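re: ur question from earlier - yeah i can do the single chain one, its not a big deal. heres the input i used so u can compare w yours
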Amino acid sequence: MTTPETPGDAYGLSRPTMADARDAMHRVHGHTGRSSWARLLAAAKLTGNETDEPSLLRLLETMTNLDPVSRLCAQALRIRLTSHTHLAAAQLATRSPA
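and the output i got, formated as tokens:
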């Protein structure tokens, strides 16, 4: 079943958010997810409520240096962010003018 795209989606792929990063950290770290997320936020000097691109990029950079599992998590989120950026540009370029 298809669902309508939300604003900001590019071909059905949404841009990753802090909430996505938090959920990913909780998933990959299991029972230590909450403390791993808190440690990440402290290291990045963020609250986790930020919505701007520079904060997300700082979080991903810090996540890369946290531990091997977090590094893989950051890589996956970076792939999603890059994919969204390229798909959004392609979608904009291929849409017919109104």
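The chain has a mean pLDDT of 89. not sure if urs matches, ping me
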